[in-house]
Design brief:
This protein is mainly α. It has helices spanning 8-33, 40-48, 50-72, 79-110, 124-155, 159-186, 190-193, 197-200, 204-220.
Length: 221
């Protein structure tokens, strides 16, 4: 049986579906923390959730931009690309829920209790498993994007785009390792002494990307 060729229109349909799914994920992020407004106080509480929503929206946007960047590299739309894209959609729609729980809890803690989020995570055990589920979800998404950009690197012909695909593969591989590391730290006794440590672990990603850029510039020079 001949292998089916993917036409440009089919790639556009896949991208449109992924875009719609990300928009729905943002809707879930709002609905998960939203309640019917019955008074002015309810309105105030809803508005106080905006910082947490903004943080969650930014992270969902990061994943969406990554998929759009993969698409602009012009990879071959084969079966692997389709299934990886669909897996990204599925993972994001699940990832929204631990994301909302963690960011509202963090916003409440950072604001000194001024922002909503009290009681969402009430024990150290709850915090441990919230960090673990979040880190696992983040690592799965990072793995999917690592595989997507690796597929682009194999299938594009343009040397500049191939190089860009390699750099994105490297960055998402770093994100994968960071997510796994954060999840593992959450399972250790370190969490009791430093409950902020699994969250701060994600700062390794921009630090690592900056280091990669520095190394690339030195190599080019």
């Amino acid at each position: 049986m001949a292998k089916a060729e993917f036409r440009p229109a089919e790639g556009q349909r896949l991208d449109a579906f992924v875009d719609a799914a990300f928009a729905f994920a943002v809707s879930l992020l709002i609905i998960a923390g939203g309640e019917p407004l019955r008074s002015f106080d309810d309105l105030v509480q809803a508005l106080l959730r905006i910082p947490a929503f903004l943080a969650g929206f930014a992270l969902i946007l990061l994943f969406w931009l990554a998929h759009r960047t993969w698409s602009t590299l012009g990879p071959r739309r084969d079966g692997q690309a389709t299934w990886l894209s669909l897996a990204v959609v599925f993972a994001v729609l699940i990832f929204v829920f631990p994301l909302r729980l963690l960011i509202e809890t963090a916003a409440h803690f950072i604001s000194g209790g001024r922002l909503p989020g009290a009681g969402l995570v009430s024990t150290l055990s709850d915090l441990r498993w919230t960090y673990f589920v979040y880190g696992l979800g983040f690592a799965i998404l990072a793995l999917l994007f690592t595989l997507l950009f690796a597929q682009a690197r194999r299938t594009v012909d343009n040397p500049q785009r191939k190089r860009a695909a390699y750099e994105w593969t490297r960055s998402w591989a770093l994100a994968l390792v960071t997510g796994v590391l954060s999840a593992l730290i959450a399972l250790t006794p370190l969490l009791r002494a430093a409950p902020w440590l699994p969250g701060c672990t994600y700062w390794l990603i921009p630090a690592g990307v900056g280091l990669f850029a520095f190394m690339d510039s030195r190599k080019a020079a």
